[in-house]
Amino acid sequence: MRSVKKLAVAVIGLLVLNLLFEIGLNESIKRARNSKIVWILKQENKHYTNLFIGASKIDMGIDPAIFDAAAPGTRTVNFGYHGFSFIDIDILLDHFLAHNRADNVFIEVEPITVMSFDFTKYNAYYNSYMPFIPAPDLKKIVKNDKLWYSWKYLPFYRYIDFKDEIDNILKFSTVNYDAASGYTPRSMQAYDSHLIAEGLTMSTGAGLSKTQLKCLSKIINAVKGKSRIYFIRMPTHRHFEAVLQGNQVYKLAKNAIDSITLKYGIPYINGNSMMLNRTDSLFRDDFHLNAKGAGQFSALLSHQLNNPKR
Question: Which of 77, 83, 150, 258 is deepest in the core (most CB within 10 A)?
């Protein structure tokens, strides 16, 4: 009987320590001042004219200050972040629009997004969702992860599993975004190809992600009653298009997004068609604009959206 009591006390003690660790870790992440994800998730009672959301091409390619300077009276924000997929966008927009407003939402629709990427517990914690998004909401889209429950309920295990990533958040080592607009400026360096196109071609899967496509449709249905939706493809270096134009999975992905665009009647902005003079001086690499390119494209896009041809 005495040994049973000792075991019970030990279990209760571990549970209490576990709870304290969970509270401390979550509170530390919520106070991470240099994490753009935390900045997005903590937004409350904001009203933006234009909200851009997508992966790193949005993050580095839309400068809200220049966009708004070309259209006085507007307030634009950049919610782009490295590696965002439609699953991430779905989670963040659902959370943001429950507490804030945006007149226009511009969603990046890069075909590569639906070629290979799926969601795991890695995204849930590395992107700091756990302290803000209810775990059951994340569990609905985390598939084939046998360790989910132990990971969710045992923060000691979770911390050990992702110690480096969590340390990065707590040590404020994320990129230096603009806390007023969300823009992450990059250097003015001219094009220095890192062969990103070839790398993406080799790393993409053999088919399309049904989960990503389903999330894109879910985003449209969730947002369309609250904001005007636009799809946008950011400008890419000509080398990128040249490499991927022969990739059959890339063509399938592009066709799938085109089909969704037509089905829902979403206005589509093609950055490459808008920015025909895409010289090396405007790009950081195959995939991203540098600060000069971001400025030019932001001004051009703002002018065209706010001064439509009659």
Answer: 77
Residue 281: give the domain boundaries: 36-118+177-306
For the CA atoms of 43, 99, 86, 121, what is the dihedral angle to 10 degrees? Answer: 70
* Whole-number Å distance between alpha carbons of 124 and 145: 12
pTM, to two decimals? 0.85
165 CB-near residues (< 8 Å, 6+ apart)? 122, 125, 126
pLDDT at 172: 45
Distance CA 109, CA 123 (A): 19
Question: pLDDT (tens digit, 9 = 90+) per residue, 78-87?
Answer: 999 888 889 8
Contact between residue 181 and residue 66 where contact means Cβ atoms under 8 Å apart? no
Structural domain count, the chain: 1
Residue 299 domain flag: yes
pLDDT band, residue 203 (cuts 50/70/90): very low
* Average per-residue pLDDT for the chain: 81
CATH number at residue 205: 3.40.50.1110
Beta strands in 183-293 (DSSP E): 228-233, 268-270
Q: What is the C-alpha to C-alpha distance for residues 75 and 51, in angstroms, rounded to an integer?
A: 9
Q: What is the pLDDT of residues 19-60, one digit of tens each?
A: 777 777 777 777 766 778 888 888 999 999 999 999 989 999
